[in-house]
Structure formats: C-alpha cells, structure tokens
Amino acid sequence: MSTTPTYTHEQIERAITEGFDMAADHAGISAQNSDFTAALTTFWAYLAVIDATAYTRHQVSAALNRATDDAAEPGCADDIDNFAVNAALTLLETPHATFDDVATECYGEDPDVIAGWLRNAT
Question: Collapsing DSSP states into helix, strand and coil, what is residue 34?
C-alpha cells in the first residue's frame, strides 16, 4: 500500500521561493514584484485554511494555482506566473530541478523558447 507524499511548511516555502526566483531570473524581473508578492500572500492564506502540519502536492497545487489566478492582473495569470507555479511544484518533488528541467518536463519545449516567453510577458 503506497501513501501520498506530504510536504512540510519549510519544504513548501523553499520550493516556492526557488520557483518564483527562477521565473523572475529568466524573465528579467524582481522576485519582489507586486504580482508575485500578492500571489504568495494569498497562497499562504489559502494554505493556512487547510490547517495541517504536512500538505499533499494536490493541496499545494490547488492553493498556489488559485492564489496566482486570484492575484493576477487583470485576473488571468500570465506566462511568468504560470512558470513560477510549475517551477515551485517541480521543485517540491525534485528539489534540485533546474530551469531546463522545468521547461522540458512541464512544457515539453526548448528552455530558450520558455525563457523567451517569460521575457516577453514582462
């Protein structure tokens, strides 16, 4: 019988920080931009409602996607937001994943193409 892996608050925070930093670095923006900070503040509020000491990937994904959509201007997440979410979720499961890993695994695209999308979304 297999169990669903769970993640601690610390693991989630590290993955999200690194995922959003990865998106920001390749987009040429600050990880402290208002879109990211609004999404992250909303995410932590949504996750707190779950009231657990460990969270499943599904719980983290649902809260992070909802928070990103809710915080996005004008209500629709862009390529940078979506990449940040995908990077964070990838890093949650594979802590040493790189930009190339996320681009290939989540998008099936050449990393240079994804980097171009991120730069064009700014």
Answer: helix
- Would you list the DSSP string of 48-73? HHH--SSEEHHHHHHHHHHHHHHHST
88 CB-near residues (< 8 Å, 6+ apart): 15, 16, 18, 19, 20, 64
For residue 74, what are the CA distances in angstroms to 56, 69, 70, 77, 122?
A: 29, 9, 9, 8, 14
CA 112/CA 49 separation, integer angstroms: 38
> Per mean pLDDT, which of 37-41, 72-76, 78-82, 88-92 is the most reliable?
88-92
Q: Phi first, then psi: give them for residue 7, nearest 5 degrees.
A: -130, 145
Tens of pLDDT along 11-60?
999 999 999 899 889 888 888 988 788 888 988 898 888 888 899 999 99
Query: What b-and-e string marks burial along 17-46, b requiring 16 or more CB atoms within 10 Å of the CB?
Result: ebbbbbbbebbebebeeebbebbbebbeeb
DSSP 31: T
